[in-house]
Amino acid sequence: MTLAVVVGQVGCLTLVIIGIALVAGLWLDTRFDTKPLFALGLVIASVPLTLFLMFRVVLTVAPKIQINAEQATAAPHEEKAEGGKERTEDEEA
After folding, report:
1. Side-chain half-sphere of 37: how many Cα atoms within 13 Å?
2. Which residue from 14, 21, 41, 85 lies 20 to 30 Å from 35 (Cα-Cα)?
3. Cα angle at 51 between 50 and 57, to 5 degrees?
4. Degrees (nearest 5) of the Cα angle 44, 45, 49?
5. Residues 25, 43: contact at Cβ < 8 Å?
6. What is the pLDDT of residue 70?
7. pTM for the complete prediction?
8. How many Cα atoms are found within 13 Å in the side-chain-facing hemisphere of 34?
9. Measured between alpha carbons, how far is 75 from 72 in angstroms, rounded to an integer?
10. How far is residue 75's CA from residue 92's CA, in Å, rounded to a whole number?
11. d(Cα 61, Cα 77) in Å, to the nearest integer?
12. 86 forms bridges with which residues in the sheet?
């Protein structure tokens, strides 16, 4: 996993939670005729939930990203020659 994948997951998670809160709030407002009350309340209440889930996702995925980064730096550096043949650092010297 890369950092871009995590950022995408967190962004989508945030949009989904706030969207569900807004839709539920608007539905409750039309149901009980309390126009902005439930919509604002649920959207504001969804912020701590979103932050909590955001940190959980990042803390869950961070060790995997670190392992991938360590493996990438530990792998031998390979480059392609002009003819398309791969060569390693040993062959260059």
Report:
1. 8
2. 14
3. 85
4. 120
5. yes
6. 84
7. 0.72
8. 9
9. 5
10. 16
11. 26
12. 80
